[in-house]
Design goal:
alpha/beta; Helicase, Ruva Protein, domain 3; Dna Topoisomerase Vi A Subunit, Chain: A, domain 2; 2 domains; five-stranded mixed sheet; 40% helix
């Protein structure tokens, strides 16, 4: 058990250690680093965290992060709203946007089907998808999910749900390594995977 010289220090370490990939030793280093900063910089840091929680919303259309009702992408009339790219989370939106190769809109699931983690279809943002397809005259849905077993399972499930719609269902080209996460793919490879997407095999969902 660590003997902290201050209860406030211990509480701060406890909170930092709740962050993904941050152990107590790393949390202590971060807290001590903040203590060495000026009061103004420390207040800016704290204010940014509070403002983030209070000011961030999720787009009513696609579930992307935004500060209003709709995100900038869904509000943009120059985007192709008949082309919807389904991704796991916001990091994937950012990765694809950085390629500059995609001008459609997105649908952020907020996860992928993973029974081991207790995540089923009901935990994903799928309820609004059929309505989006109908209301926006969507002609193509791109499945841009990680090429893992969980990602493939999610693609299979969504494809079954959409099989009665008269739309093209495609998947990103396998330039992304099997088992790879989109956010870690380089921009050129990811961009090519989007451009060279391939039709999803309809026989796989029958």
């Amino acid at each position: 058990m660590n003997a902290y010289p201050s209860r406030l220090l211990e509480e701060a370490v406890n909170e930092f250690s709740k962050l993904p990939g941050v152990g107590r030793k790393t949390a202590l280093r971060l807290v001590l680093h903040l203590l060495r900063q000026s009061p103004v910089d420390a207040e800016k840091f704290g204010h940014a965290i509070i403002a983030l929680h209070k000011g961030i919303h999720y787009c009513e259309e696609c579930n992307n992060i935004c500060e209003g009702r709709l995100c900038n992408i869904c509000q943009d009339d120059r985007r192709d709203h008949g082309l919807v790219c389904i991704v796991e989370d916001i990091r994937d939106v950012m990765a694809i946007e950085n390629t500059g190769q995609y001008r459609g809109v997105y649908h952020v699931l907020g996860g992928i089907i993973s029974p081991m983690d207790g995540i089923g279809p009901n935990q994903l943002n799928l309820e609004k998808l059929p309505g989006r397809i109908e209301n926006n005259n969507v002609r193509e849905v791109i499945m841009a999910l990680s090429t893992t077993m969980e990602g493939d399972t999610t693609v299979f499930y969504i494809s079954k749900k959409l099989r009665n719609f008269n739309i093209l269902i495609t998947t990103i080209a396998r330039g992304i390594a099997v088992g790879g996460e989109l956010e870690y793919a380089d921009e050129i490879t990811l961009g090519r995977s989007i451009v060279n997407r391939t039709p999803y095999e309809q026989s796989a969902v029958k």
